[in-house]
């Protein structure tokens, strides 16, 4: 299984300037591809194939030929994704926007990797604009342009051996350049284990609730929800202030920079919480020796909440905002690939009414608060744990029995919430 890791490239003024120049050149390649492919479509009513795009791109770009081909591959993949989306959403647009900077994709042939350094190959052409116009150095326009092979060297700070790395990208993130690379991670084999099933229920108040037959773990999602709500309110306030300023003025630029910082900071916080949440879940599954995980599919729950009359009656303005800010897709994606690395087979199931179905009497009862109480057998169980177990029962058999333990956790335990006895081990580890 391939996963993506990254490390920050240390700041050096000359290095960063070279990488920025390569980003501009990569943007020129992307803009040329988009312009020519779109023009060909309107003229011939069909798209250029990936092979034709790569053949046309054999021009004098100051990038390695494999990097130019990688940009063409990304355009073809983007176009195919939009084609699939347009089957259900006609508002999805093919690539059209002009870019001024673009990430630098690197194939294996365009970089040399050693233990200490990573050498990125590029080319520089010997012609200047004046030479081209006066034809001082070229006797025939059909001759190949003379080029000089150059390179950009960055330090190798990866924790893995990158000899088998076939693809990487250099991206601008958080005010610095990052080297993102794909490495293959071996998946564990759980075929010798006895089959054990667990279900996962995604939510807002509790980000993930996972349960087996007798044990359950519930990880809180209140921190992620509060960050999302604060970001929405702060961005709305900044947008309102920007609308009162003249576009391009100094005060307008201050608000714009503040908005960008707020978005970046909140994205970093949410991503960290998502990783910590899914790590707790996967550790629980590994300890319980779970072989099959069934996740509830909640995609599309936020769509049509204003136009659909049935959804509109159930949800008010505040609830619609909460659903639109819910990051359940990212949590599901992180949970899926982390579980697959551990050898756990992950599937999805419809999660409608799973929190209201009673496993003891088979009836359906409305849950009150965070607890589900069966009106027939008077059994009490956490509604998210009940939903997780019922999701697993839609795909596999799971016995109905009382739970031994239900553990509630936070993705991050802040020091102000810990008792004095819990703070002592932290002080010792810090020392």
Automatic annotation (TrEMBL):
<keyword id="KW-0815">Transposition</keyword>
<dbReference type="GO" id="GO:0003677">
    <property type="term" value="F:DNA binding"/>
</dbReference>
<feature type="domain" description="Probable transposase IS891/IS1136/IS1341">
    <location>
        <begin position="182"/>
        <end position="301"/>
    </location>
</feature>
<dbReference type="Pfam" id="PF01385">
    <property type="entry name" value="OrfB_IS605"/>
</dbReference>
<dbReference type="GO" id="GO:0006310">
    <property type="term" value="P:DNA recombination"/>
</dbReference>
<dbReference type="InterPro" id="IPR001959">
    <property type="entry name" value="Transposase"/>
</dbReference>
<keyword id="KW-0238">DNA-binding</keyword>
<dbReference type="InterPro" id="IPR010095">
    <property type="entry name" value="Cas12f1-like_TNB"/>
</dbReference>
<dbReference type="GO" id="GO:0032196">
    <property type="term" value="P:transposition"/>
</dbReference>
<keyword id="KW-0233">DNA recombination</keyword>
<dbReference type="Pfam" id="PF07282">
    <property type="entry name" value="Cas12f1-like_TNB"/>
</dbReference>
<protein>
    <submittedName>
        <fullName>Transposase</fullName>
    </submittedName>
</protein>
<comment type="similarity">
    <text>In the C-terminal section; belongs to the transposase 35 family.</text>
</comment>
<feature type="domain" description="Cas12f1-like TNB">
    <location>
        <begin position="329"/>
        <end position="391"/>
    </location>
</feature>
């Amino acid at each position: 299984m391939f996963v993506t890791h990254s490390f920050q490239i240390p700041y050096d003024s000359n290095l960063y300037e070279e990488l920025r120049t390569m980003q501009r050149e990569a943007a020129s390649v992307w803009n040329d591809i988009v312009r020519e492919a779109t023009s060909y479509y309107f003229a011939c009513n069909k798209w250029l194939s990936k092979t034709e795009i790569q053949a046309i791109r054999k021009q004098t770009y100051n990038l390695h030929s494999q990097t130019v081909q990688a940009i063409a591959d990304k355009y073809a993949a983007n176009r195919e994704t939009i084609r699939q989306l347009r089957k259900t959403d006609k508002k999805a647009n093919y690539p059209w926007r002009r870019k001024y900077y673009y990430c630098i994709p690197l194939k294996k042939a365009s970089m040399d990797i050693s233990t200490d350094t990573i050498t990125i190959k590029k080319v520089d052409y010997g012609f200047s604009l004046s030479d081209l116009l006066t034809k001082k150095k070229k006797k025939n326009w059909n001759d190949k342009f003379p080029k000089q092979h150059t390179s950009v060297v960055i330090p190798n700070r990866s924790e893995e051996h990158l000899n088998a790395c076939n693809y990487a990208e250099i991206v601008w993130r958080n005010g610095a350049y990052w080297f993102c690379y794909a490495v293959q991670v071996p998946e564990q084999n759980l075929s010798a284990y006895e089959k054990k099933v667990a279900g996962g229920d995604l939510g807002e108040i509790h980000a993930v609730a996972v349960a087996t037959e007798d044990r359950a773990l519930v990880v809180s999602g209140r921190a992620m929800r509060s960050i999302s709500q604060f970001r929405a309110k702060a961005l709305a306030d900044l947008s309102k202030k920007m609308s009162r300023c003249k576009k391009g003025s100094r005060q307008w630029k201050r608000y714009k920079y503040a908005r960008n910082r707020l978005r970046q900071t909140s994205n970093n916080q949410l991503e960290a919480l998502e990783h910590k949440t899914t790590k707790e879940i996967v550790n629980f599954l590994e300890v319980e020796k779970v072989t099959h995980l069934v996740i509830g599919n909640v995609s599309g729950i936020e769509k049509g909440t204003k136009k659909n009359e049935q959804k509109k009656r159930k949800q008010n303005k505040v609830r619609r905002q909460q659903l639109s800010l819910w990051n359940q897709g990212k949590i599901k994606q992180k949970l899926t690939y982390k579980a697959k690395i551990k050898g756990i087979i992950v599937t999805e199931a419809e999660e409608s009414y799973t929190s209201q179905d009673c496993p003891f009497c088979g009836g359906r009862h409305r849950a009150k608060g965070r607890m589900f109480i069966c009106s027939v057998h008077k059994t009490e169980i956490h509604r998210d744990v009940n939903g997780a177990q019922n999701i697993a029962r839609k795909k596999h058999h799971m016995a109905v029995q009382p739970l031994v333990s239900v553990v509630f956790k936070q993705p991050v335990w802040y020091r102000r919430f810990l008792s004095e006895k819990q703070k002592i081990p932290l002080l010792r580890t810090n020392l």
